[in-house]
Write a structure and sequence with these properties.
The protein has 245 residues and is α/β, with parallel strands linked by helices. The protein contains five helices and eleven strands; from the N terminus they run ββββαβββαββαβαβα. The longest helix has 24 residues. The mean pLDDT is 94. Bound molecules: hypoxanthine. Hypoxanthine binds next to strand 5, strand 10 and strand 11.
Length: 245
């Protein structure tokens, strides 16, 4: 697979192993993306990398210019996008250290610029979002995980909250009742914007904590970062295997 773009999140500020040979500073009609987009080789494949929170990481989830990020990647001609998201685990298997390739999401975000449809094009942009993640790209990720013997959950529901604060225990109970397996803050509107542009998109979620009210230790960024550092190696191996297929 070539021309894959990776959008890194918390804990994935750079893509180890990517031999960067170009940096693209792209301007878009929606403003500037989170940073310049790296183009390089991961093994034999051309891969693009963008850090969603900017480098050094400062842009909080609700202030990310998702439209500029997706538009910029699309304008570079990327063939598909994989978003990496740190999340809290809600249901049984979703313990810290686990990877998940979600097949569904529920969007609880608000006030974000969430569409390219400015109402001026003369057409209504009601994109089909029944399956929010691209099926083939998900299957390729699941196949790559199998091939590289990386333990990961091949489906689940990603609840996307507004942040930047973490949830209350009652909010997490509601997410569980809604059917969410994990909770994060950056999965939307990224997935929907990719769909509007016709870009195949999938997500790899890294569970870094038990969601609020479910764990026995207080939520702490330091602990999340320790877990992320461990999971980042598995994510890198997963992506290397994916692009080599
Ligand atoms: N909730 C929301 N976003 C997150 C969490 C969480 O528990 N952990 C990492 N990102």
């Amino acid at each position: 697979m070539t021309g894959l773009a990776i959008i890194g999140g918390t804990g994935i500020a750079e893509l180890d192993g990517l031999v960067v040979y170009r940096e693209h500073a792209v301007d878009t009609p929606f403003g500037a993306p989170s940073g310049s987009i790296q183009e390089g080789r991961l093994g034999e494949a051309v891969v693009y990398f963008l850090h969603r929170h900017g480098g050094p990481a400062t842009i909080p989830p609700h202030r990310i210019n998702y439209r500029a990020n997706l538009w910029a990647l699309h304008s570079l001609g990327v063939g598909a996008v994989v978003g990496i998201n740190a999340v809290g685990g809600i249901t049984g298997e979703m313990r810290p250290g686990r990877l998940l390739i979600p097949d569904q999401l529920i969007d609880y975000t608000w006030g974000r610029e969430h569409t390219f449809d400015d109402g001026l094009s003369g057409e209504l942009l009601h994109v089909d979002f029944t399956e929010p993640y691209d099926r083939e790209l998900r299957q390729a990720l699941i196949g790559a995980a199998d091939q590289a013997a990386i333990d990961c959950e091949p489906g689940g529901v990603h609840g996307v909250m507004q942040g930047p604060r973490l949830e209350t225990a009652a909010e997490v109970r509601r997410l569980a009742r809604d059917g969410c397996d994990v909770v994060g803050m950056t999965g939307m509107p990224e997935a929907a914007l990719a769909r509007e542009l016709g870009l195949p998109y999938a997500s790899v979620c890294m569970v870094v904590n038990a969601a609020a009210g479910l764990g026995d230790v207080p939520l702490s960024l330091a602990i999340m970062h320790q877990i992320l550092a461990r999971e980042a190696g598995a994510v890198r191996k997963l992506l290397e295997t994916l692009v080599a297929r």
